[in-house]
Design a protein that fits this description.
The protein has six helices and 14 strands. By secondary structure, the chain is an alpha/beta fold.
């Protein structure tokens, strides 16, 4: 398949209420059918909670089971992060759930220590590139956006996904870095951020975009609104651009250790 239809769900997350948040996601997906992939914000089922022991779920937990069912019925993949419990550790984990029930897991590498995330979570150590419908998709979470080496395109992906709870107070930085990551990696990019205010009185005003490989915004969600944005991306267009402007051939070759 040379194209993929993507929807990003910019939601107002109900604080520490997984049932209500999954219900809202289900409604948004079924009211906006036709996508191949639905992208959700970071910690879409709780908000950026400190109560990881209370809200941490294993991969067989209720949230994952319900999202698998939504994915199966909609015949589309779903991507977003939750508090994942694994071997008595907690991870901010981005899940990529396919309609057949298989799940890829990316554990957030860069923990936002300024906000206490490093005290609550263990960090991941592996980049995860998902193969879906002929597209190679790399998964990233929020603060990872500030670290370009981690997201370096080594000719191994076509689409970047950043799920986030990025506060309004630093939104200017967020928007610049998204475009930079798309340009430097010659990749499509989908970002999905939240709106509203969380239980810590932190305000979020959105910043959900679908961006092309030149850093140009294809579509943007309206600030402060719950909204679903949609676009169909062309792998052929991306490959033609890379062939005509092969900047990636001049990159330094290195390995992350």
């Amino acid at each position: 398949m040379n194209s993929i239809k993507i929807s990003a769900l910019q939601t107002n997350i109900v604080w520490e209420n997984p049932e209500e948040n999954v219900k809202n996601i289900r409604n948004l997906v079924f009211l906006n059918p036709g996508a191949d992939l639905y992208v959700l914000p970071e910690m879409f089922n709780t908000g950026f909670t400190d109560n990881v022991e209370l809200f941490g779920e294993n991969i067989e937990g209720k949230t994952v089971k319900e999202l698998k069912e939504i994915s199966r019925i909609s015949e589309a993949a779903i991507c977003g992060s939750i508090v994942l419990k694994e071997n008595d550790k907690y991870y901010n984990a981005c899940l990529f759930i396919r309609p057949d029930g298989t799940v890829d897991i990316y554990k957030k590498r860069h923990l936002f220590k300024y906000g206490g995330e490093g005290d609550m979570f263990s960090k991941g150590n592996e980049r995860v590139v998902v193969d879906y419908l002929g597209w190679r998709i790399i998964l990233m979470v929020c603060y990872d956006l500030r670290f370009p080496v981690w997201s370096r395109n080594c000719d191994d992906y076509d689409l970047m996904i950043y799920v986030a709870n990025w506060p309004a107070s630093r939104r200017y930085i967020h928007d610049i870095l998204l475009k930079a990551r798309a340009i430097e990696n010659q990749s499509y990019l989908v970002s999905c951020n939240r709106v509203g205010e969380d239980g810590k009185n932190i305000r979020y005003n959105g910043g959900s975009y679908i961006i092309d490989y030149k850093g140009e915004i294809i579509i943007a969600a309206q600030d402060n609104n719950v909204e679903v944005i949609n676009s169909e991306l062309s792998l052929d267009d991306l490959n033609i651009y890379r062939k005509n402007f092969p900047a990636q051939n001049d990159r330094e070759i290195f390995k992350i250790i």
